[in-house]
Task: structure prediction
Amino acid sequence: MSAAGDVNPTTTPAPWRIQIEGGAEFTLAADEDTLLRGALRAGVPWPYECSVGGCGACRFDVLDGLMQTLWEAAPGLSERERKRGKRLACQSRPGGDCRVKVRLDPPAAGAMASRPPVRRMATLLARRPVTPDMDEFCFQLPEGDAGEFIAGQYALLYPPELGSPRAYSMANVPSERGSNPTVWRFVIRQVPGGVGSGLLFGLTPGAQLPIDGPYGHGHLQPGTRDVVCIAGGSGLGPMLSVARGVLAEPGTRRVHFFLGLRTQAELSAVKELDGLDPARLRLHTVLSSPSAEAPWVGPTGFVHEEAERTLAQPLAAHDFYFAGPPRMVEAVQEMLMLRHRVPFEQIHFDRFI
Ligand SMILES: Cc1cc2nc3c(=O)[nH]c(=O)nc-3n(C[C@H](O)[C@H](O)[C@H](O)COP(=O)(O)OP(=O)(O)OC[C@H]3O[C@@H](n4cnc5c(N)ncnc54)[C@H](O)[C@@H]3O)c2cc1C
Ligand code: FES
Result:
């Protein structure tokens, strides 16, 4: 076998054998697009968070074999790490049999073994506006595909003609599969200048798209404490899923839902919570930049500050779920972990990198 390197030729026919230093070994199918996704599909508990090159959680070393890097400038690695030969499994594709070094993540094994991600062709059934720049996209999965996931997980959508997928969180709950056909719903924001979201907003009903999932660890956990959901912008999607998941349980835990929007123009998003049991869900809507030209008597500022102001103390009496832009996620983490000493196992989040 050749020395570890960045070259791309195929030296042995796929499927390839991937050996992890210290024991585990798995086979990577010929049509697998990355090392990470192949490992997860094989039930290997490879550490990861975002699946799209942003977080660095999936970093590893190549000890032997050929490995192609898909996105050289992925922000999940620093220049120093790149120089030291580190790689991201979600941005690497083997070119033959390989030997690699990574510290596996055994706690993730259980969830993955019962629901390994599946890549399938989905059909866009419907699209409707949620706010001026966010739409709900409803995708139908193929006949017989149960589309199992845990509330709060995400999927990878492959926008047409774009080589790399983008991550979007399901906004519904898996029990909606009782309806026929199985659907996955996503609340997607059209990012100004964003390549992937721009292509998705060009889709019309009937369009077909590869969708791979479920992924993610920031999902709903069983428990008895009341749940706090903090959603920043398009973080609304996964928080709706978590809230729906809690309310679908027979238990009595309640949901404190904090929805952070920018201006009154986005208040139409509030309608997404219509129909959720008001006896068990309390909604707090916060505007960060309300316009002086339209009425607003509710709270203003950062959404997590409103949560800190209004929740009963100690905050550790609740389980926390949050999703949104990286700056919001960091601010919530700091509030919970540093200022309020909420135990790590009560904190579940997705950073929209
Ligand atoms: C776990 C998770 C869940 C998310 N859930 C949602 C959601 O429910 N709703 C929502 O609106 N947004 C969500 N996002 C954000 C979403 O994935 C996109 O980042 C966002 O839509 C902007 O994508 P874009 O292509 O329009 O923008 P761009 O600025 O063009 O690209 C944004 C991201 O795409 C990836 N990327 C860029 N270039 C490359 C490349 N050459 N190769 C590979 N990858 C590249 C990077 O991750 C980059 O940060 C989520 C993100 C994550 C990580
Ligand atoms: S999982 Fe690979 S960089 Fe986030």
